[in-house]
Amino acid sequence: MRIKKVGLVCVPFGLGGAREGAELGPRSVMNAGILKQLESLGIEEITVRDVLCPQRPTGLPSGGRMRYEIEVRRMSDLMCEQVADLTANGYMPIVLGGDHSVAIGSLSGITERDGSPGVIWIDAHSDLNTEATSPSGNAHGMPLAVALGKAQFKLSGASGKSIRKEKLVLIAARDLDPGEKELIRADGIACFTMHDIDRLGMKTVMDRALEIAGEGTASLHVSLDMDSLDPSEAPGVGTPVPGGLSYREAHLAMELLAESGKVTSLDIVEVNPTLDSGGRTARLAVELCASLLGKTIL
């Protein structure tokens, strides 16, 4: 499937994590040349939209277990409008975060417009904590729990729809909290850990992921956390975990997603230029986005 229209949604939001700097991610990815890459792929229409996120908390963290709940809600509401509008007008939304809490806004906009999408979540973490199970209360560890309707915090939008657990696939997980492990097992969520990737190989894992998340769904959302890669490849992330995806494993995953022709929206999150080495992680993010959009070696 040739992608003709892309909408870049820049979301400079970093209050969902514990470390400053993720809010600078969208600018760093833009500076790394994502527009030039999109143009080189022959995409006919490219629009860029900026979400004016709150940069500083308006008060103390929420009394609940999600820190800065008010600010997360404002960000999510604004994103929901942008993503839903882009989708309605035939654009493929590509969300540039920001920490991974921005995916609450992505999934809000997608479910508002397209119902319940298939979701492939490529991340060192599962982001399935609720307010009750989160050790930190940080929102970037909760977006999937929110999207599944497991958390007190709910997706933005009027539809009230959630994603379906049977159409969710986690890939590259290797740092899971006890409550997340319990939820994955209890709900039978498909989770391909790094052990599974080592044992089966990336192609088999992606084939299975596409079969689970991509069959029988009107849309397929991919959420790429740059900490899914090994820190030796992507040092500029807030929560690095050793033993992650190699450069080629990550590119192969994106290439197989492109070949499927099923992906309709994408997040690229957790690029933190304050922790990066010469913009290396941002450049890799651009390369991986290009592979998902169809760029090939030959």
TrEMBL record:
Gene3D superfamilies: Ureohydrolase domain. It comes from the Bacteria. The keyword Hydrolase applies. Its cofactor is Mn(2+). Keywords: Arginine metabolism, Hydrolase, Manganese, Metal-binding. GO terms for biological process: arginine metabolic process; urea cycle. SUPFAM superfamilies: Arginase/deacetylase. It catalyses: L-arginine + H2O = urea + L-ornithine. It holds the Pfam family Arginase. Binds 2 manganese ions per subunit. Pathway: Nitrogen metabolism; urea cycle; L-ornithine and urea from L-arginine: step 1/1. GO terms for molecular function: arginase activity; manganese ion binding. Its EC number is 3.5.3.1. One of its GO terms (cellular component) is cytoplasm. InterPro entries: Arginase (IPR014033), Ureohydrolase (IPR006035), Ureohydrolase_dom_sf (IPR023696), Ureohydrolase_Mn_BS (IPR020855). Belongs to the arginase family. This is Arginase. It comes from Cohnella thailandensis. The gene is rocF.
